[in-house]
Structure formats: structure tokens, C-alpha cells
Amino acid sequence: MAKLRFLTAEWRDLLMLNYEVDPDVLKPYLPAYTVLDLWEGKALVSMVGFMFMNTKVMGIKWPWHVNFEEVNLRFYVKHFDGKEWKRGAVFVSELVPKAVIPLVANNLYNEHYKALPMRHSVTAVDNDHTRYLYEWKYKGKWNRLGATVNNAFEPIRAGSAEEFIFEHYWGYNRIHGTKTLEYQVEHEAWKVAAVTEPVFDADIAGLYGKDFVPFLGREPHSAFFAKGSDVAVRVAGKILAAPLLPAD
């Protein structure tokens, strides 16, 4: 039986600045029955900026909640469901400019949304490059996440770092110490482009906590950009127990 399709939209112009962090920083956010998914032995988090377009919740386009920005901080996990490992993402923080989204998502699905004033810009640098910038206003100051992107897009290579960052089709929310909410994200494989001149200027301690300051305050480990596609999000259910792990 198909799970409930909670949300449909287009996710467009996805910018990912990725940072290596101490795994211990992520432990308080780790949902039950998941483990960290590492890239070449490294625990990575991503600062993500993108556009929600043509958004429908439960099949309805809600007034003033159709096209808007989102900036989030996420990290990567795996969950073994008794048959296979599922690779997913966990969100530490999600910023949007619409107050209704935090009200609904935080209460129903234990998300971590906060509503702030936001804006974005897309500027042609030359014939071959475009500058993308996402901004949000926090405590009276505009914070920003941006980069210059090559206009040539290519399919994601199997086994690449881009595949690790972008190809996570499950999400996990920590409800409490022994309960986790699982949801499924459906979209086509995205094409990606090279990124230069990444910038992340934000109140890291105020928005994400002081433990993230030493890691998000330095140059990113990597930076990627995807044009995006249509997406659908289904609520898969609650995980209440841990299946036996596969034998080594």
C-alpha cells in the first residue's frame, strides 16, 4: 500500500556547501535506530539553499506558500530496516520565510523549522557562470549562503562525492529516544555543475549552536550545485524498534 504523499513541489537551484565535523557534535541530533553515514570516513554536514516552487501540501496550493526559499543544515545517516540499509538525511535547522510551515511541520512531524525574512538572487556573471545567493535576516542582520556556478550541467557520477551528498532518498526525524519518524523523498536523478567562490556568512552560534562554530566557520570541504526537479515527499511511518543488523 502506497504511503501518504504529504508534499509535492519543485526543488530548484540547490546549493550545497559541505563541512567536515566531529561526529560527537551530531550525536545529540541522531534519531533512534540510525547511524552516521560517513564519506571516506568523514562526518559531513551540508548548508543547503534552494527554492521551493509550485508547492502543494496534501494536494492543495496554499495562498502565499507556493514559491519560497529554504536554507537548512543537515547531516547524513543510515537505517537498517531488516532487509536493506536506507541512506537518509537528518535536519538540524530549516529556515523558511513562511510562519505557517514551522507551525504545521514542527508540531505534526517534529521538524526544526524557523520562519525568518528571506530573499534570493540569481545573477549572470558571464556567458558561462551564474551567481546564486540565498539570504535570511536574523537579529537584524542579513546572513548569506552563495556561490558561483558553471552553467554546464552533467549527470552525477556513480561513487562520486556528489552522489553521496545528493542521493539520499529518506529522511529521519528524532521524536524521542526510542521513536523515529521516517519519510521518503522521490525525485529523478539530478544533474550537477561545478561550483567556485562559495560564501557562508552567518551567526553560526545563534542559529545552530556554539558546537558548530569551529566547523562551519572554516572553508567548506566541498561545494556542489544541482538544478533540481519535481519532488514528492511521503510519510513512511514511525520506527519503534531496531531490527537485527546484518552479519558482517
From TrEMBL:
InterPro entries hit by this protein: ADC_dom_sf, DUF2071
Highest taxon of the lineage: Bacteria
Any matching Pfam family: DUF2071
Protein name: DUF2071 domain-containing protein
Organism in which the protein naturally occurs: Mucilaginibacter straminoryzae
